[in-house]
Amino acid sequence: MICSVKQSVTTTINGSDLFLRKRSPAHPIQRSSLFLPVLGETQRFSLSVSKPLHLSSAENLSLKARRDPIKCEAYDAADSSKPVEPVAPEAVNKVKIGLYFATWWALNVVFNIYNKKVLNAYPYPWLTSTLSLACGSLMMLISWATRIAEAPKTDLEFWKTLFPVAVAHTIGHVAATVSMSKVAVSFTHIIKSGEPAFSVLVSRFLLGESFPVPVYLSLIPIIGGCALAAVTELNFNMIGFMGAMISNLAFVFRNIFSKRGMKGKSVSGMNYYACLSMLSLLILTPFAIAVEGPQMWAAGWQTAMSQIGPQFVWWLAAQSVFYHLYNQVSYMSLDEISPLTFSIGNTMKRISVIVSSIIIFHTPVQPVNALGAAIAVLGTFLYSQAKQ
């Protein structure tokens, strides 16, 4: 910034004769103005002189209006505030992953609780599975229409590659729901923790892939723990057991088809799962009608409403909404974290669901059964480490 003196006379006086006065009518003609911008503000002073004006030195200039020396500096407006320390990208990424995991686990636990409540009062897993897919599809269509989420740009080739993924997803979803309608939630998830074993076996014998020795060794506690938990299950049911096993196999094929078909596709995880839900809904609806049918649904609805009351409607809506949300968050997390981190998070999700369902539904568990579950989950964790 520049300090400037405007004057109408050019004769000189000594610097000691220069002083500040208030503007008054006594000196109307010979008048000088000194503009001193101090800390971003412009202060105006009037200099009245009775003798010719001369500045012999800037050092001799003193301002009686202010005892402290005034420092005139040139600075940019952005420098007037203290610099903000940048946040480390690693810290932000850790917080983001933590939020993804916490949301994913919480939504999954809530879904399993309400899903089991609905199935206990309304034992129609095909319709329940259809409603969860329909609710998620409707939510995403509304999001796209209102511009809350950006609609994906797809073509016919995209839907062709998505079709086998949707078929496998539909089978896995219905099979898991059928399993939970017959056995405890904890037992279903114990059996579903054996999914890595199916993944290795399918990849090895159908796709010809080979794995390191630690991967094969990690299958021993997975298979052994699941077998021990199944043998010692108090409420064992063959349909529930087979439903969980079919679900494992179907989700393995879903993952294989997804990896092969989505290479080079620029669709976000959220939109990818939305498209998957819509296509799965189209595939599942006619089968649900054929297997169960509107007559069975209507009779079951009257029974559930008479036993539970209007609260049953909330249960049904909650299980449908939370099913879509937890799957959507899991697919969104795949865009942000590594496969190893995702597999570890999936293992911890199983633990949270098993423990919470045992507590909420008061599921009787023998010590040997709990040991088998712990061994199976530990094997899943070891598999995720060895695979990477």
UniProtKB/TrEMBL annotation:
Positions of the Sugar phosphate transporter domain: 96-384
GO MF annotations in UniProt: organophosphate ester transmembrane transporter activity; phosphoglycerate transmembrane transporter activity
Keyword vocabulary terms for this entry: Chloroplast, Membrane, Plastid, Transit peptide, Transmembrane, Transmembrane helix, Transport
Predominant cellular place of this UniProt entry's protein: plastid
Listed transmembrane segments: 97-114, 126-145, 213-232, 238-257, 269-288, 308-326
Entry membrane topology: Multi-pass membrane protein
GO CC term (a single one): chloroplast membrane
Subcellular location field: Plastid, Chloroplast membrane
Family matches, as Pfam families: TPT
Protein's recorded name: Sugar phosphate transporter domain-containing protein
